[in-house]
Task: structure prediction
Amino acid sequence: MKNFKSNEPCVACGSTAENQVCYHHVMHRSQCGSNESHNLMPLCHAHHTMIHNLNKLNMASRFPGVKKWLLDNEWFIDESSGRWKRNKKEF
Result:
């Protein structure tokens, strides 16, 4: 993830620790997720690990900053599936 270091604070906790914040692909690259800003959520190492162990729905419920970031970047919860989606792609 060296190429995906962020100068932005972690959206979960606000940490700006040098070399500790990187971008998390909301829709993973293996799912054709892009490197566009709406798909790159800045997270510190601890929260990046956590989001892979939990799911995004739980992270958004637990951390208001994660939910705000998703909504600000035009992600929404699809009522029928209960999943976060953007432009008809879900995760």
About this structure: The chain has one domain: 2-90. The mean pLDDT is 86. Residues 21 and 44 are 4 Å apart (CA to CA). Helices lie at 45-53, 56-62, 64-72.
